Amino acid sequence: MSWFIEKGVLTRERILELTRQAADEARRRICADPKRVLLLPPDITRAHSGAGWITEEFYKIFSPTADVYVIPTLGQHLPHTPEQNRWMFGSIPEEKILKHDWRNGATLIGEVPAEYVKEVSRGKADWSIPIALNTPLVKEKWDLVINVGHVVPHEVLGFANHNKNYFIGLGGKPTICASHMMAACCGIENNLGNLLTPLRRCYNKAEEDYLGFLPDFFFEVTMAYDAAGVLQHTGVYVGDDVEVYLDAARASREQNVTIVPPLNKVVAVMQGDEFYSTWVANKAIYRTRMAMADGGELLIIAPGLKRFGEQADVDALIRKFGYSGTENVMKLWKQEPVLQDLTHGTAHLIHGSSEGRFKITYAPGHLTKEEVESVCFGYADLEETLKRYDPAKMKNGFNTMPDGEVVYYISTPSAGLWSTEEKMRDRDA
Fold this sequence. Notes:
Layout (H helix, E strand, L loop, with lengths): L1 E9 L1 H18 L6 E5 L10 H12 L4 E4 L11 H8 L16 E7 L1 H7 L8 E6 H5 L4 E7 L2 E2 L3 E2 L4 H4 L5 H14 L1 H4 L6 H13 L5 E10 L5 E9 L2 H15 E3 L3 E7 L8 H4 L1 H6 L3 E11 L9 H10 L4 H8 L3 H5 L1 H9 L7 E6 L4 H6 L3 E2 L2 H7 L8 E4 L5 E5 L6 E3 L10
Parallel strand pairs: 2-3, 2-6, 6-9, 11-18, 12-13, 12-17, 13-14, 14-15
Antiparallel strand pairs: 1-10, 4-5, 7-8, 9-10, 16-17
Helix pairs in contact: 1-2, 7-16, 14-16
């Protein structure tokens, strides 16, 4: 059940007060005097949510009397550098921030059976999902585990956060690969905006079956744009079960889904200090694809972009096969051992394609025209693009350029979902 919920425009000071309230509740409900505490925030790609300073506050609360560690829930993203940790987590000592190793640092604790996967996916996937999780999480004794995060529309799970922190953020290779491929087979546009996607149902079952031993709770935030186009906190949801996720996800769907007519030209910015690869910058594609008009263009300004995959082997996979559409990728999947081994990468290739329905153009900071075009994207020069579509002058929503071009501008695509009314029909309650 939810321990407490606070909605409305929330300042940083108020959220820090709620952090202290959550800590008091945890002492009352879970452990009165915790000696070993584990904090599980998202990684740097969600730094705009305030998860870093919320985590720092929890560290300050418990560290005087407990041994407190932090594991950013990276999934298969690159570990943070010490500089990134300082930027995101402030005063938390570097030696207290552990790195999740998705390949070699996970322990198998069970599986979601193939029959259940087949049932909830309506036959689109028929394999089991192994549950391999971060070894310190499942093998060491913790008196308190605190999940911090931002509930926002998500291409794999419908909405991010909650037990995604465990099964993707701290998942091992078998879990991440099987999960992403299942979600891809169910269809990205069927996942977006649904509270309980097939994969979320699998994770809820796995949490119930295997994670009952964890003394954990969730501190979740929602965010939305105000009338001036500024992203602000709109809610804090604290609790220890799936209801706290559902409460936050319902709020996110109300606040973060923008219904628009079919859009012919979208300009989206992926911030240079958060998004370094198309693996994460492609959120601009995921969150706008249900709004794009046939034959339209999505232009992504990505000054930090320097690679395709987060890992070298996934980067090589993307460079070799490109975002070439579901039909081609599924055909290659049956033939290419590397696509069968790195199925999370295979799923990513599917998610990142427009299926030829609209054009995707990147204006990257560090990739060449040849590199970008080799993976089936269009290329635009970053300097020229910034001159024409200056983020300092653009406003969220429709903009008319001096030559009469009408574009729809999105300053933080990862914070929402844009869709036509038609494509948002038949979402779950």
